[in-house]
Predict the structure.
Amino acid sequence: QVQLVESGGGLVQAGGSLRLSCAASGRTFSSYAMGWFRQAPGKEREFVAGISWSAGNRNYADSVKERFTISRDNAKNTVYLQMNSLKLEDTAVYYCGAARSLAVQTTTGMYDYWGQGTQVTVSS
């Protein structure tokens, strides 16, 4: 069992930055691929970024490439999402997920555990 707790969301102006954190419980964190997804009102949950167990591979949605960076610290059981140059369309609830996989996963069905989500609101 893995429990995930996100933090770091909030209200930010367009062009600003935020860093999300996701703290995981359990001693097997390093054996999970991790990912960030987001869900805007009335829309499905969509992939944002994913990272393999060793951080050797990372994958990003086209909409966030060059602006967002995913990273992980296995010693701290934490995964991060650095978000720069935020846009209005980045407004959503952001969820952290853990997948029983060593490779990056980009679909919600491949994830076994989810956090409760953290709201990110970008204003003009």
